[in-house]
Design goal:
This protein is α+β, with helices and mostly antiparallel strands and about 70 residues long. Helices cover about 30% and strands about 25% of the residues. It is built from one helix and three strands; from the N terminus they run E-E-E-H. A hairpin with a 5-residue loop joins strand 2 and strand 3.
């Protein structure tokens, strides 16, 4: 059975990134007391960047919709 992990990132959540050159990936750590790490292979960094951009573009487009509070 598959599950999904949700990590709510806010402006208060510390975010740190470091290159793991030996593994050819980037580690992105979220939080302090109960940290979560996202490991991204070098070849997938641009895909992650594009997914974040697409999400932000959708939020901006939603802001421009009539009736948005």
């Amino acid at each position: 059975m598959q599950g999904m992990v949700h990590v709510h990132v806010t402006t208060e959540v510390p975010i740190r990134a470091r290159a793991l050159a030996f593994a050819d990936r980037v580690e992105i750590r979220f939080g302090k007391a109960f940290p979560v790490a996202l490991l991204v292979d070098r070849d997938a960094v641009d895909r992650l960047r594009q997914a974040l951009k697409d999400g932000m573009d959708a939020l901006v487009a939603a802001d421009e919709q009539p009736g948005k509070v």
